[in-house]
Design goal:
By secondary structure, the chain is an all-alpha fold. The chain has 32 helices and no strands.
Length: 616
């Protein structure tokens, strides 16, 4: 008997499936057809199809597609009726009120639309999913102000003033209410100082996304107000310091760092060190040096004393390497400072960079080659010297040997470094330096072979330098099979490297006057401009660089000349308008140049301080 019943049940189930499967298939086909109608803009057919589907299975998806079809057909009455019916079935789905409000709004009944929206806001409870759906619906409908009302009311009902901070801040940003946005973040900071880093990340994103001066002004005024109200609030002062660094207002950042350091001496000058580091990377050397000086003044017991002492000297060295004018008495003072620092801090692994910089100063600025070489040998004699430090010091020593004419000893050191760093940037740099040494030595074919390999270097700077020198050689090898002019140019170039400026000038000048034209003439102009800059004859350098740009705009050195001319006018000739014009020309006329990013940054920085529209 049981077996018979089971057999009957199986037959009933089979009959049901045979009937049900075609129905499922039919519904699936109808759904695909409805989607096709909607996506192809056939909204009448789409509405008919979704009406049938919704009648058979009144789920959320069919409702939404039917509602949208009605809106596309401007059948607002049907859309409202559909939303009203669904609200009766699902009164807690408050996003339905937004749908109905949109239909009223599109029909032109603004009063009913607002009444419907307000009704949705007032009905919210403690259901986070409901709140999320409603705010999302308001944002999609283009009503962020109502979404803000939802979050504020939800916060009030929850009795939690910190609920939905990030959501509200984002909405305030979108509507341009920056003061309210700041209020949200700073109220959160008041209650949770440990959120400082997260808030800074959020504000950084906002500053990057929003190119609106009102935002910057609003943040600055809010910060100033908060700091004035609570001068001992560490979080506010930290925020003020962070903001000034974001804006690259380094003088203001210095003031804030001093304030933090004065109120919180237990931080050991860390805020000053932070400002020093960022100011230094942005070449705001005066601020960086002052920060390092203030930290070093705390004495050797301060945790940041050593890096402050070293940092101050490294900034002075960087200024000198960027061709900042330096008087003999200042150079003498700098040399004394380096010697004093080494006497105090010792020759050890922590002062390796200090020793190398000091050797550089002695050799290339104080004409004290032997003491410089001795210092570099002292570095190489340090026990447990890391391989990278050893090889970098060998490169510095090789450069020094080349500087004094010890070509073969220099080449040997370059080869040692290259062999030890075959798959590293340092190895590529050593290979480039050795190839350039071959070029100085008139071994042009070998130099060109090595340079062509380096054009594939992972370092863009090395690859670019290798390409420039390779093209210089190949262009002039083709023009002059005797290599006479190229040999003369390489000899002049070596004089320039050895800092024999007057002799180098005469050698380049002889090349310029030896024939009416030659492919080397743009290089000659560039090198003569570099000499005049080192001699602090900036007006002459300006003229030479402009000649290069005017006469050889399509040659390889044109973008180099533009960048150098821009820097010359910005840093030496106090002509920011001309500097900005040069940066602009480089960006527009040489978009594939390696210097475009650098030029764009400087252009924007100058545009902030000067009138005229900026580049898009």
């Amino acid at each position: 008997m049981t077996a018979v019943l089971d057999h009957k049940r199986w037959l009933v189930w089979l009959a049901f499936m045979l009937c049900f499967l075609p129905l499922c298939r039919a519904q699936q086909t109808q759904e695909q057809l409805a989607a096709h109608y909607y996506s192809s803009g056939q909204f009448e057919q789409a509405a008919e199809s979704y009406e049938a589907l919704y009648a058979r299975a009144p789920n959320k998806f069919y409702y939404q597609m039917l509602f949208r079809s009605y809106l596309e057909l401007k059948e607002y009455k049907e859309a409202i009726r559909l939303a009203e019916k669904r609200i009766k079935q699902y009164p807690n789905d408050l996003y339905l009120y937004v749908d109905m409000g949109r239909a009223y709004e599109l029909r032109g009944d603004r009063r009913k639309a607002n009444k419907t929206y307000d009704s949705a806001v007032q009905k919210i409870g403690f259901d986070t999913k409901q709140i999320s759906e409603l705010t999302q619906a308001f944002e999609t409908a283009g009503h962020p102000e109502h979404a803000i009302q939802v979050y504020l009311l939800a916060r009030k009902k929850m009795r939690n003033d910190l609920a939905y901070v990030s959501e509200l801040a984002t909405l305030y940003q979108h509507v341009g209410n920056y003061e309210a946005m700041m209020q949200e973040y700073f109220d959160l900071l008041d209650k949770s100082p440990n959120m400082l880093g997260s808030i800074q990340i959020s504000l950084q994103r906002v500053l990057n996304e929003t190119a609106n001066p009102k935002l910057v002004d609003g943040l600055r005024s809010t910060l100033v107000q908060r700091v004035q109200q609570s001068p001992d609030n560490k979080s506010y002062i930290e925020m003020m310091l962070w903001f000034s660094l974001q804006q690259k207002d380094f003088q203001f950042a210095l003031v804030q760092a001093k304030a933090v350091d004065a109120r919180f001496p237990d931080m050991g000058g860390e805020p000053l060190m932070r400002v020093a580091s960022i100011a230094r990377s942005n070449q705001a050397y005066d601020v960086a040096q002052e920060c390092y000086r203030l930290v070093a003044q705390k004495g050797s017991d301060s945790p940041n004393y050593f890096p402050a002492r070293v940092g101050g000297l490294e900034v002075a060295f960087e200024r000198l390497n960027r061709n900042f004018p330096i008087e003999n008495k200042l150079l003498t003072q700098l040399l004394h400072d380096y010697q004093s620092a080494l006497d105090e801090l010792g020759k050890n692994l922590r002062t390796v960079q200090l020793m190398r910089n000091y050797a550089d100063l002695l050799a290339y600025y104080a004409d004290s080659v032997q003491p410089a070489a001795d210092l570099l040998y002292d570095v190489l004699d340090l026990p447990k010297l890391p391989a990278k430090e050893r090889d970098e010091t060998k490169l510095a020593l090789a450069d020094l040997l080349l500087f004094v004419g010890e070509v073969w000893d220099a080449s040997l050191l370059y080869m040692q470094v290259e062999k030890a760093n075959k798959n590293d940037v340092l190895g590529s740099l050593a290979k480039f330096k050795n190839a350039k040494l071959s070029y100085y030595n008139n071994d042009f074919l070998w130099a060109k072979t090595q340079l062509n390999v380096l054009r594939a270097s992972t370092s863009k700077l090395i690859a670019n330098d290798a390409m420039e020198l390779s093209l210089l050689i190949s262009d002039n090898m083709e023009e002059d099979s005797t290599f006479d002019m190229l040999s003369r140019y390489a000899a002049a170039d070596l004089l320039l490297y050895r800092n024999l400026l007057d002799s180098a000038w005469d050698a380049f000048d002889d090349i310029a006057h030896s024939t009416l034209s030659h492919p080397l003439f743009d290089e000659v102009l560039y090198q003569k401009a570099r000499i005049r800059i080192r001699q602090q004859r900036y007006a002459d350098a300006d003229t030479l660089l402009q000649q290069l740009i005017d006469f050889y705009p399509n040659d390889l050195l044109a973008d180099d000349a533009l960048l150098l001319l821009a820097q010359l006018n910005e840093e030496r000739l106090s002509n920011p308008l001309r500097a900005r014009s040069c940066y602009e020309k480089l960006i527009l006329d040489y978009p594939s140049s390696l210097y475009v990013d650098q030029a764009r940054k400087r252009y924007r920085a100058l545009s902030d301080a000067l009138p005229s529209a900026s580049i898009q």
